[in-house]
Amino acid sequence: MTTVPTLPLAHGARLPAIGLGTWPLDDDAAATAVRTALEAGYRLVDTAENYGNEAGVGRGLRDAGVPREDVFLTTKLNRRWHSVDGVRTAWERSVRRLGVEYLDLFLIHWPNPDQGTYPQAWEGLVGLLEEGKVRAIGTSNFKPAHLERIVEATGVAPDVNQINLNPYATRAASVAADARHGVVTESWSPIKPAEMLADPVVTGLAERHGRTPAQVVLRWHTQRGYVPIPKSASPQRQAENLAIFDFALADDELAALDGLDRGEEHVTDSDEFGH
Predict the structure, then answer these.
(1) Model confidence pLDDT, tens digit, residues 70-115
(2) Pairwise CA distance, residues 148 & 178, whole Å
(3) Contacts of 236 (CB under 8 A, 6+ apart)
(4) Is 118 tagged catalytic?
(5) Which of 42, 51, 168, 226 is catalytic?
């Protein structure tokens, strides 16, 4: 079983350096995927209210038999809860569906700036952190301007900002803003789009290191200090995705992957989309 390194977070918790994503698995598929992932050595599991699979994720956690305190469990709240009291309600509903007593990381799923109340949601998360109902708090799909607004409003920066990031979309401005505030950047869809895994730069590095293209891309994430959360329901792929800490990419190889950046053409604009 692979032992996963961890990264320190601003409020004292430690985040595993790679995790399991669960979108778009339903409850039954999520339960199986979470169980097999935890058995393989994963200790970070990511879900969300909007995925509709929190109950299945909780079932998988119980089926695996791993002590609760050894698993870093993340979920996210929707725009209907963007108020101080709403965040508390969202927390109550998520822990009930998951079958747990606390969350390790609770995220605002999208900023929804058209609604304009994500600072109040952030204030609610800060309250949950102070009460010990969550070990860490964060944001998802927040641009630098969104991040600056919540820090200015509360004086509290997120532990984590989860964004769509990969070598085809390196998100330099968001990564820099996260770093300025001591925020760990987490990567969703870290090995997509699929064409990226067939890119000659990626396949060439995979051949050089005797690895899969996905392993090369995931190692790029971890060496750059990002925490990828690839989704896979296949035990074989889960194991492959986890087996990335016994090799390293050289500086010029990391730079070659950086050079694949295409801007943000395939990144969903969080000023325009959200739920």
Answers:
(1) 999 999 999 999 999 999 999 999 999 999 999 999 999 999 999 9
(2) 10
(3) none
(4) no
(5) 51
